[in-house]
Automatic annotation (TrEMBL):
<protein>
    <recommendedName>
        <fullName>Sequence orphan</fullName>
    </recommendedName>
</protein>
<feature type="transmembrane region" description="Helical">
    <location>
        <begin position="62"/>
        <end position="83"/>
    </location>
</feature>
<feature type="region of interest" description="Disordered">
    <location>
        <begin position="259"/>
        <end position="289"/>
    </location>
</feature>
<feature type="transmembrane region" description="Helical">
    <location>
        <begin position="31"/>
        <end position="50"/>
    </location>
</feature>
<keyword id="KW-0812">Transmembrane</keyword>
<keyword id="KW-1133">Transmembrane helix</keyword>
<keyword id="KW-0472">Membrane</keyword>
<dbReference type="InterPro" id="IPR038781">
    <property type="entry name" value="C365.16-ike"/>
</dbReference>
<dbReference type="GO" id="GO:0005739">
    <property type="term" value="C:mitochondrion"/>
</dbReference>
């Protein structure tokens, strides 16, 4: 007669869940939600370029195949993917509990801040932006400017991915139909621009006028453009990390919830099968020899 302990051990070996398959499915959901969000908000981010607006209206197909749209979508899709997969791996490491949860740890900040800074170094993204507000002449980004742009991006990433889960704890829920997390995802990156804009303006000034000017000249250049630049950056960041962040989170939550529900159904089916097997064992053990 097979004991209950031995039976349970054999049954567990037979019914061990395919963890790698589950992880791949979740990573697929992470990537899909990130791409959906990035493609949805990229047109709004590209609106700072008048040529892009005209192209979107007159030649939408050419706009969506343009280098500008591709760069913007790639930057934000990559950032969302890093944020999403970080949450997935943290949940996986904890034993697959809370797969829909959003984390706010240093691992997420390290990953999400590294990607846009790497992309800035490898592409002409910030160089083109600086040229738009300078003398129109393209030149290499000097190290001080690059450092300021990196600091600017790190602040924005911190307030876009790490601060919202913490801020949501003190915000009222269901404000204008939004959850506290969604509200925080819009407010935090917008408010951050009042802190990061001076870094942005100083970086642009160093790029366009060189490093020989004094502190007074730098301060005047930054203060003269501070308010309008802060508001302009809010208009750019809110679609990118505010609305985009909410859309990414909503898509990811829906996909992960679907995966989680299917896994629970499978577990219930396994439990039912297990009970049936036990009943069969009892009938067999209690039958005639």
């Amino acid at each position: 007669m097979q004991s209950d302990t031995a039976y349970a051990a054999v049954h567990k070996r037979k019914q061990r869940p395919p963890q790698n398959a589950r992880l791949l499915e979740r990573i697929g959901a992470d990537i899909a939600s990130a791409v959906i969000a990035a493609v949805a908000v990229a047109p709004a981010i590209c609106m700072i370029d008048k040529d892009s607006i005209a192209q979107l209206v007159t030649k939408p197909q050419a706009f969506f195949l343009s280098r500008t749209f591709g760069l913007v979508a790639m930057v934000y899709a990559g950032t969302y993917i890093v944020a999403n997969t970080t949450d997935t791996f943290i949940a996986y490491k904890k034993g697959n509990e809370g797969i829909t949860e959003v984390t706010a740890g240093t691992a997420k900040f390290a990953g999400t801040s590294r990607y846009p800074n790497w992309f800035t170094a490898k592409s002409s993204f910030d160089r083109n932006f600086a040229r738009m507000f300078g003398n129109g002449i393209s030149k290499p980004i000097p190290l001080p400017t690059y450092a300021l742009f990196c600091a600017r991006d790190c602040l924005t990433i911190l307030f876009s991915f790490n601060i919202p889960p913490v801020l949501s704890q003190v915000l009222p829920d269901n404000v204008g139909g939004l959850s506290s997390l969604s509200t925080a995802q819009v407010l935090a990156p917008a408010g951050c621009q009042f802190l990061s804009t001076p870094l942005h303006l100083l970086g642009l000034d160093l790029y366009n006028r060189g490093a020989k000017l004094g502190v007074k000249d730098r301060f005047q250049a930054v203060s003269a453009n501070y308010l309008k630049s802060s508001l302009a950056r809010i208009c750019r960041i809110v679609p990118a990390f505010g609305i985009g962040g909410v859309l990414n989170s909503k898509c990811r939550y829906g996909m992960m919830k679907n995966i989680e529900d299917r896994e629970k159904e499978k577990e219930k089916e396994k439990e039912k099968e297990k009970e049936k097997e036990k009943e069969k064992e009892k009938l067999f053990d209690g039958g005639p020899t």
